[in-house]
Amino acid sequence: MKGYDESKKCYLDGLRGDEAECVEFLAELAGGGPALELGIGSGRIALPLAARGMRVDGIDLSPPTVAQMRTKPGSDKIAVTMGDMADVGVPGKYRLIYVIWNTLFNLPSQEAQIRCFANVAAHLTDDGSFVVEAYVPSKFHRLSNNQYVEAESITLDEVGLDVLRHDAAKQMLEENHVYISRSGIDMSPVVQRYAWPSELDLMARLAGLRLKERWSGWKREPFVSNSERHVSVWGR
């Protein structure tokens, strides 16, 4: 797995454009740290957050992605534990634990997501915050036949397609980013088990946490009925 490429809407080595706002939001909550990122990946957020002088650790399941982070300046200051963020243990406690950009939904079941909340609660300080950034799944319930095909990029040399199938009963998405070019076909599959914000609130309560804030973006835009994503903050 690589980083993220805006032109293909997939994980290659690039940026989303909201890094500064995200880091500012997290740094304010961290209050000097320490901080733990679940699914740290290539360090898109962890590296600039650590550059502010606080200790940032990470958990990740992908050795190639963490290896990519290790090629970047400042990564030697970040300790990464390899494993599943629902279960892997880390030493100590953190003022801030965060998981961004829908990564929580990569856990394949409600049970795994509940275990993740419990794992977070076990490593959160009494005054700490757990932050989740994720999409609101409303749009998937408006799909025709619970599926779609969308052209993400079109050039003379390559066509990029986003192909998705939705299972409303299981709250599952099976998605594939398909790139067709003269050299062949490349596919980047993604499987996610999504959860509604209210369901995440219940998972938090089971772990002994409560909702403190919910916004529709890193600039603290109000969360309303037609918001397409949320930034939620839980604490004790």
**Given this structure, which CATH class of the largest domain is correct?**
Alpha Beta
CATH architecture of the largest domain: 3-Layer(aba) Sandwich
Radius of gyration: 18 Å
Number of domains: 2
Principal-axis shape equals: globular
The succession of helices and strands, N to C, reads HEHEHEEHEEEEEHEE
Tell me the strand percentage band.
Answer: 25-35%
| Structural class determined from secondary elements | alpha/beta
Distance between the termini: 35 Å
What value does the average pLDDT take?
Answer: 93
Low-confidence stretches: 1-13
Condensed summary:
The protein is 20% helix and 34% strand.
Q: How would you describe the overall organization of this protein?
A:
The two termini are about 35 Å apart. Strands 3-2-1-4-5-11-10 form a 7-stranded mixed β-sheet. The protein has about 240 residues and is of the alpha/beta class. The protein is globular. Strand 8 and strand 9 (about 185-195) form a beta hairpin. The protein has 2 domains: about 20-135 and about 195-235, Vaccinia Virus protein VP39 (Rossmann fold, 3-Layer(aba) Sandwich), CATH 3.40.50.150; about 140-190, N-terminal domain of TfIIb, CATH 2.20.25.570. It is about 20% helix and about 35% strand. The model is unreliable at about 1-15 (pLDDT under 50). The longest helix has 13 residues, at about 110-120. It has helices at about 20-30, 45-50, 65-70, 110-120, 195-205, and strands spanning about 35-40, 55-60, 80, 95-100, 125-135, 145-155, 160-165, 170-180, 185-195, 210-215, 230-235. The chain contains 5 helices and 11 strands, in the order H-E-H-E-H-E-E-H-E-E-E-E-E-H-E-E.
